[in-house]
Specification:
There is one protein chain. The protein is of the alpha+beta class. 53% of the residues lie in helices and 14% in strands. It has four helices and four strands. The chain has a two-stranded antiparallel ribbon. The protein has a two-stranded antiparallel sheet with strand order 3-4. The longest helix is centred in the N-terminal third of the chain and has 51 residues, at 2-52. The radius of gyration is 21 Å and the shape is elongated.
Length: 139
């Protein structure tokens, strides 16, 4: 009888612990996504004036500085054809991305790219070497 109660108690505690950890994981991921979205919007708003006036040197400088911050893998700005116009990794400038790639498909599934996209469709988490990366798209 005591053994049965012990097994049931351990199973219940284990189940509650698992549910708690999964809930915490989902909340943490949501907080990281929220922070990335806020950073992405801040970058867009910070670069708007320089883009409007075609101040390319200022754009390159800001993107390079942002890209050097700890925790940021890279920052890229594409034109409508999918060419990397500005990047914190200079070797990427001029490259054209495949619009049918997983990261691009959400916006480019139709003939005309979407101008707005729900947050869950703008983000993806993927593995790179020894860490995970949150990718954020801001159309």
């Amino acid at each position: 009888m005591i053994l049965c109660v012990g097994v049931v108690a351990i199973a219940a505690i284990g189940g509650f612990a698992y549910i708690n950890l999964e809930t915490q994981r989902r909340h943490l991921i949501q907080e990281v996504i929220s922070g990335a979205q806020q950073l992405s919007d801040t970058i867009k708003r910070s670069l708007w004036y320089d883009m409007l006036h075609n101040y390319r040197d200022a754009l390159y400088n800001v993107i390079e500085v942002i890209g050097r911050q700890e925790g940021i893998e890279k920052v890229r700005i594409f034109n409508k054809k999918g060419m990397v116009m500005f990047s914190s990794h200079k070797e990427e400038i001029g490259e054209v991305v495949d619009k049918r790639a997983e990261a691009c498909y959400a916006c480019h599934a139709e003939d005309r790219p979407l101008e707005r996209l729900d947050t869950p469709k703008r983000t993806r988490i993927y593995q790179a070497n020894d860490h995970r990366i949150l990718g954020m798209i801001s159309p």
